[in-house]
Amino acid sequence: PWLTAEENQALAQKLKKRIGESIQKLDENPGELYSEFMDLISVTMFFLLPVFAVLLKIFYLGHRIYYAEHLLLAVHNHCFLYLALLFLSLLEHAVSTSMTAVAAPVFTAINIWIPIYIYLSMLRVYQQGYFVTLLKFSFLALSYWILALMGFIAAITFNVMVL
């Protein structure tokens, strides 16, 4: 509503052109678009790291823990997440179709272990009860994934509109 009709039309044309180019790029080389998307994910997660530390600070206001310590836990958990996802990605590329039955339990185990590990790290660092930590972990996870989704949408929109 704050744009004039001509500006709206010009923006719509530019967006249609960029989406058309992205679809053409996807048809020609889907690996390149996937690579660009993965670059956006890593950049988005990099910017979400201090935001996650702020969320930890908010959820643990009563504790006498500095922001830097929350940030250190956030870096630790993000590194663990990156390593687990790297291992999953390498395993996916290494496994042939005949070995899928062997790799499926490993995939499942790693995907189950990721939230358990992050929960246990919070339990150890903040030293609260199991239920309180589980409750805070659940709200933090939900908040983080909502922020991540918003960040991914913003990054994709930026990629389509600007680049």
Portion in beta strands: under 5%
Q: Counting H and I runs of at least 4 residues, what is the number of helices?
A: 5
> How many β-strand runs?
0
> How does the helix and strand content classify structurally?
mainly alpha
Mean pLDDT: 83
Query: What helical percentage do the residues reach?
Result: over 70%
Radius of gyration: 20 Å
Listing every helix as H and every strand as E from the N terminus to the C terminus, the arrangement reads HHHHH
Mass-distribution shape:
flat
Termini distance?
Answer: 25 Å
Unreliable parts: none
The main β sheet shows up as: none
Topology diagram in text:
Blueprint: H1 5-28, H2 30-59, H3 67-94, H4 100-126, H5 130-161
Report on this model:
The protein has 163 residues and is mainly alpha-helical. It has helices spanning 5-28, 30-59, 67-94, 100-126, 130-161. Helix 2 packs antiparallel against helix 3 (67-94) and helix 4 crosses helix 5.
Brief overview, please?
The protein has helices spanning 5-28, 30-59, 67-94, 100-126, 130-161.
Tags for this entry?
single chain, 0% strand, flat
